[in-house]
Amino acid sequence: MPRVPAFVFAVALGNLLVPLNSTMIVVALPPIGRDLGADRVTLAWLVTSYLIAMAALQPIAGRLGDRFGRRRFMLGALMYFIVASVGAALAPNLLVLVLFRLQQAIAAASVVPNSLALLRGRSVEGKAGTYFGISGATTSIGAAIGPLLGGVLSAIDWRLIFLVNLPLAGLALFMAWRSLPAGDPPRRTAHPDIAGAVALGVLLSLAAWTLTEAGTSAPAITITLLAIVAVAAIGFVRYESRHSDPVLPPFLFTIRGFTSANLTIALSNLALYGTFLAVPVILAASGPDGTIRGGLALSAQSVAMIVLSPVSGALVDRVGARWPTALGGLLIATGLAILGLSGHAADFGVLLICLPITGAGVALTFPATRIAALDAVPAHYAALAAGVTSSSRYFGGMIGALVAGLALVDATDAAAGRLFLILAASGLAAALVGSQLPRHAAAPTDAEVSTAG
User: Fold this and answer.
1) Which residues lie closer than 8 Å to 77 by C-beta, 6 or more apart?
2) By C-alpha distance, which of 374, 369, 386 is closest to 59?
3) Measured between alpha carbons, how far is 344 from 423 in angstroms, rounded to an integer?
4) What is the CATH number of domain 250-453?
5) DSSP three-state, residue 215
6) Phi and psi (nearest 5°) for 270?
């Protein structure tokens, strides 16, 4: 087997921290609440604030990395993540804990887009898919082991779920410092778009908050907020179109490969997160061991994602991003459609057959869509492209969670079947959009960028 460079593992370990810290804290909420005297609604902000910040800040962090240096931003973000984790572990009350939890998210939002842009830029020709597949596998590992690790550590002391980040982030920082070169010099082509960065952060934060709270807010409030987001988005695009160096250049979304990749990853993540939320709810009513069986069924899906991500990355190296993405969407749709049509959505055996099929589909789409998005844009926008793609994943997941919550108000077999068919339709849509990806993307030239801008 060819040697994998150290910088690949540095990026993979840095990206593992994000899902690990998203999932560890969920099982630690009860002991945190008892220790700090907080109710369940207030505790939810430990999860919600992290997700909103991750969804909203990654494009901005990527743009700053493109402008001032991706290696610098990645290393600084890993250092800041360590500081934030120590602060969270020492928090004397919930307000301080939420504050440091938000700092964790700010740091993580800087790590992801800049590390992935560095990974793409440093990849040996013909190996980018393999390297992104390794990163995807570690991301799935983080999501899979987070609840187990969080449960073990919080049983001892919930503060350990933050302190465990120190050796992991420290190792990622050391490896990145040793293996990543200085890279390209900072680009200072015009005055920074500070107003655009602030507006984008507020806009994405409002959109993310609206989606996360839609299941509990009055419909009129949700519709009003979505209308505000839509109007604000139009104003934002008009402003960015006139700026000499916009934080989010609108022309990027005129590039077919970039837009298709982002839409595909949002649709596949909609199906994935809808499934993640649905399975425990459906099986909870099936007996006293329903929670355990739900965990096992989702673990089977995660194992497929972990094992097949490097394989799918190598496939992208051989045939390009289009057909792995389309095949992945079809597998997502197939697994979920069988569940929806079987009439036995709560049957543990059926879940053990179908969820690995869905996991295989997600594994195929993950590296392919990210590489397609980065390859479609000029190299000096790579971290921005990675940030937008990561935000697309989060927003797709939020919509999936919302759909699952609304569909399972009554957790019956019929409701579960309808939900899985909706999620299967999302997988099919991902396949159709993915089939429109360029086989091998060619980024526009600087002259074309100037014309588009």
Assistant:
1) 61, 107, 108, 110, 111, 114
2) 386
3) 16
4) 1.20.1250.20
5) coil
6) -60, -45
Q: How far is CA 116 from CA 142, 185, 266, 282, in A?
A: 17, 18, 18, 36
Comparing CA positions, the residue from 108, 118, 121 lying closest to residue 72 is 118
Nearest to 336 by CA among 433, 220, 431, 230: 431
Domain 1-180 CATH (choose: 1.20.1250.20, 3.40.50.2000, 1.10.10.10, 3.10.580.10): 1.20.1250.20
User: Count of residues for the chain?
Assistant: 453
First to last CA, the chain: 45
- The token duo for 48 is 């919600």
* Cα→Cα distances 208→23, 148, 201, 449, Å: 18, 27, 10, 30
- The whole-number mean pLDDT for each consecutive block of 10 residues of the chain, a chain of 453 residues, reads 79 92 84 86 80 86 87 93 96 93 93 89 74 89 86 90 95 92 61 80 85 77 90 91 85 91 94 86 71 79 89 87 93 94 83 92 90 88 90 88 81 84 96 87 50 46
Q: Could you tell me if 119 and 135 are in contact, meaning their C-beta atoms sit under 8 angstroms apart?
A: yes
Neighbours of 152 (CB within 10 A): 14
* Residue 324: both structure tokens together: 């792995």
Neighbours of 224 (CB within 10 A): 13
- Residue 160 identity: L
Q: Which of 238, 174, 229, 223 is nearest to 14 (CA)?
A: 174
> Do the beta carbons of residue 60 and residue 205 sit within 8 Å?
no
Count of alpha carbons within 13 angstroms of residue 71, beta-carbon side: 16
Q: Are the beta carbons of 198 and 56 closer than 8 angstroms?
A: no
What is the four-CA torsion angle of 276, 282, 285, 290, rounded to 10 degrees? -50
| Residue 302, φ and ψ in degrees, nearest 5 | -65, -40
Residue 168: in which H helix or E strand, if any? helix 165-179
Q: What is the largest CA-CA distance in the chain?
A: 64
What pLDDT, on a 0 to 100 scale, did the predictor assign at position 337? 95
As to burial, measured by CB atoms within 10 angstroms (0-12 exposed, 13-18 middle, 19+ buried), residue 391 is buried
Q: Using alpha carbons, select from 315, 8, 29, 334 the residue that is nearest to residue 176.
A: 8
**Do residues 255 and 335 touch, judged by C-beta distance below 8 A?**
no
- Rounded-to-integer distance, Cα 418 and Cα 438, Å: 33
